Amino acid sequence: MDPTVTEIDDTSLLALLVEMFSHIINGYLTAAFVITGVVLNLFSIFIFLRCERTGTPAIQYYLVTLTMWQTALLCNAFLLYCLPNLIFGHLVSNGSYVHIYPYVYTFANTTHTGSVWIVLTLTIDRYLALCQPLKHRAIGKRSRVKRLMLVVSLLAVLFSVPRFFEVHVEEVCGADRRTGEEYCIPQIARTNLYQDGLYWSVYHVILAMLFVTLCPCLLLCALTARISIELRNAVAQRRQLCPPNLDIDRRCKTKTTVYSRKEHKANIMLVLVIAKFLISDILPTVADLLENLVGAETFMSSPLASLFVDISNFLLVLNCSSNFWVFIIWGKRFRKSVKNFIVSTKCGAALYKMTQFGSETDVTSVLIPTVSPLGAPFDTKRSPKLHLAVSSKCTEAKTYASTGNTTARFSSNCWDYEKHSMLQQLERQKLLHS
Question: What keywords sit in the KW lines (predicted)?
Fold first, then answer.
């Protein structure tokens, strides 16, 4: 058997498997996560903006801006990768669809750059809040954070403007072999600017690695590790100040400790957002480095390299579509706002009543204190047992378990009746002994 034929068969089989896997990733999986991610991100933005009426923390502006950029990135991923696979079965480089490629390609790079820079500013903000709180109080005001988000977003747009001039649509004309008629097909192609060696070295290698890929990734790793260490130290200090004792825990439940616990959970949520973004951004950074080392044409000619790029793009989509679940699990304020919004609607209120139906139980009981022989009641707080009395006159006493704390209301008639019966028993005993 010819080994050359076997090698060709293996190569074609590998290319076929890569093409099938890429179609599944770029088509169906990306479509599912893009649709759910866009819906949940828009809902998250609505909840964040709705909470602004009741006082918005400065950190919320970071999350709103980041969610906006990531929602735009999901829309671009759908137009650039998902929709062509669903319509044509593969990515297309010619036809009427390619007319949107220059705009989508530019805006896709803009959204990625904006997301990286917003996450980086968020990480720096958390680092200053934990490690240098005095500086953070001076620069962490809401008005300054708003201006910072606008400036960072505008710089991301300006930084990505040259991407628009890297590709263009050109008409490729030819003649039909059967009929001999001439036809022209629009095709996407690289411009001379993209093929210029100086432009590639300065913009794609130096500037992109300094401001988008390598340096931001390393800085995010270092700051995230530092923030994690500070959070662990804060937990250790809190345990030293408040050891696990019941009485001490009750004394430690002040407004300051409650606020510090809420802030600690908020910091954990933000660290998860940063770490999630960092994990998803590692593969695109490695892909850009490999493309810069071996060249764009050589890198994209390999089927495995194409699969590597598809997986890295899917990780970005997965990251952008999963922020809602981090907010709802770790954000107590966000979770409470979502609950209030759902309950405020008719369907949500009906569903909430259905879930709460039967969970609240009404227990009709009477708390009878232990009575001494002289008729004086002992302290009921020290009595470990709950005495139930069934009496026709004791119908007004109830124990309400729905509030979480057992609340006993005593009827004056019930109390007089029980005390009178005890006195009668004592008089009978005296008569018997006498």
Answer: Membrane, Transmembrane, Transmembrane helix
